[in-house]
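Record type: monomer structure entry
Structure origin: computed from sequence
Chain ID: A
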Amino acid sequence: MRPPVSHHHPDGGASRRPFRPVSHHHPDGGASRRPFRLLIVEDEKRLALSLARGLTAEGYAVDVVHDGREGLDRATTEPYDLVILDIMLPGLNGYRVCAALRAAGHEVPILMLTAKDGEYDEAEGLDTGADDYLTKPFSYVVLVARVKALLRRRRAAGASPVHVHGDLKVDTAARRVWLGDDETELTAKEFSVLEHLVLRAGEVVSKADILEHVWDFAYEGDPNIVEVYVSALRRKLRADLIRTVRGAGYRLETAP
């Protein structure tokens, strides 16, 4: 398979032409579907082009812009499935772009990138309506995993934000959980772990996968933290709801 070809202006920047996918493969489904369209808004041109080449090779259709105002214009006028948005941008910063998109009613998933670090910055990014957040430098493999997770969540939410499994009901939009007729209060992390299992109900989800999608990729604490949260969910919901598959991970049971 030939590597994807990038299009450059004479000054070295990316052109407005989209990166074309190298095949008609759909990363999360059948080959007959159109490829997901991604918009990268990143002023570090080498990083933006590198990400675009990699994501194009994954089968996505990718556009790249390097300015916040142009990014906002593209995201409001064209149908993207996901936006990868840097925070430190010329024109408009990523926080303002994200807030403007949400204020205009656009629900496209937004993955924010920043060279900053710290809980305050992450909270500010998420408060403006971002769906996920990565701090530079980040692993490309982790970025791809986050992209796929956000697209899966979008597809699931597009069908219905309410997931029912027996007597368990999870509303991923309102972030509320019921067992039978009783609503159960969960912490933010407990809900995120449950949501990840719900979106892949019936599948075995590894501990590493849960860590990667619920905690920051740079988390260096005890990986057994996943067991702590699974145990908490079992106590608050029902012990047999989440099954441990020895040596493989966890599975949300889907029996009626």
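Annotation 1: The longest strand covers residues 37-41.
Annotation 2: The chain has eight helices and eleven strands.
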